[in-house]
Design goal:
Length: 334
């Protein structure tokens, strides 16, 4: 664990400096255990729903190799992450020679895109997935500074980073707006925050998604993964049938627009999430359905909400880009 770096950890509750001693980082009031050179800044989680989310993602990333293999990432995942985050290869210059904090790094799969460009790269995650991130980022060629931490109590001083990035994490906390607020505290004035959050879907999809989530979110990881298999098989079957349908008129009350649709994508978009990606295969497609339905916190938002948050927090919007599933936002701290 290096201490000759630009940005240092501090006690997330008191903002005190930390001293390493006997396998811990210590302040005058607290001590945080270091495991595999990664400190744990979460002594306890008092919110049982947040604890369920922590375990859900911890199990997801530690029981799967998704994003760990370099070739699979480059050929099968990277372009989807770029699209989801509203980026091109050129746009990765945003991270060039910057101090970067990835808030909710998970197993490190998407962080591969920006870690190698950073002057100094930090990542936090609330779950035990952080220990997989270390492996995923080995090929970046730079040391990644990782810790297990809650984004609402980050172990950094305010106004520390040039760039903060969060790929699909704020909406998995008790309050998306508060998660954004607490994260940008650690951003320098003039610094950039790039984040992706879920958007509200068509009304029947919103209803069905919540219904399914309520059915499976209390199940263990293995049982929940098994319960997703019929949904994944359904999506696979529809995809293989290549059925095209025509919607001749807008069905405005249900959020359905006229046009031609592949049947699998039509049901996915308007009725319930039944994900299938042929190049990913069954295991990772099933994992994606689990990712959507298992965490209890999975808030969805509107573009108007994003604009109101940015106005309240003095964030200058560079862009808000809508995708099929969410919004990607690039903002600057004023």
């Amino acid at each position: 664990m290096k201490f000759d770096r630009l940005i240092h950890w501090v006690d997330p509750f008191t903002n005190e400096s930390l001293v390493r001693k006997d396998g811990y980082l210590e302040s005058t009031t607290s001590k945080y255990k270091i495991i595999d050179e990664i400190p744990n800044f979460i002594p306890r989680i008092n919110d049982p729903i947040q604890e369920q989310v922590q375990k859900s993602f911890g199990d997801k990333w530690t029981k799967s190799d998704f994003g760990q293999d370099d070739n699979f990432f480059d050929s099968k995942i990277k372009y989807l992450y770029l699209e989801m985050m509203g980026l091109t290869e050129k746009d990765l210059s945003l991270f060039e020679n910057k101090t970067v904090l990835d808030v909710g790094i998970g197993s490190g799969s998407s962080a591969r895109m920006w870690a190698e460009n950073a002057k100094e790269f930090h990542g936090i995650d609330i779950s035990k997935a952080i220990y997989r991130a270390k492996n995923a980022l080995k090929s970046s060629g730079k040391e990644s500074i990782l810790s297990q931490a809650d984004l609402n109590t980050l172990p950094y001083s305010d106004n520390s980073f040039d760039v903060i990035v969060s790929n699909g994490v704020f909406h998995h906390t008790p309050d998306t707006k508060i998660a954004l607020k607490n994260s940008i505290k650690k951003l320098k004035i003039g610094g950039s925050c790039l984040f992706y959050i879920y958007k509200k879907k068509a009304p029947l999809r919103e209803f069905a998604d919540d219904y399914i989530r309520n059915k499976i979110s209390d199940l263990s990881h293995d049982v929940a993964m098994k319960s997703m298999e019929p949904i994944t098989n359904f999506a696979k079957s529809l995809h293989e049938q290549s059925i095209k349908i025509q919607v001749l008129n807008d069905v405005e009350i249900l959020g359905i627009k006229k046009g031609e649709y592949d049947l699998q994508r039509f049901i996915y978009q308007f009725f319930f999430k039944c994900f299938w990606n042929e190049s990913w295969g069954f295991e990772y497609s099933n994992l994606t359905n689990y990712d959507w339905y298992h965490p209890k916190f999975a808030w969805r938002h509107t573009e108007n909400e994003i604009h109101s948050w940015c106005q309240e927090f003095d964030l200058e919007i560079e862009y808000v880009r809508e995708t099929e599933s969410g919004y990607t936002c690039l903002v600057k701290k004023s």
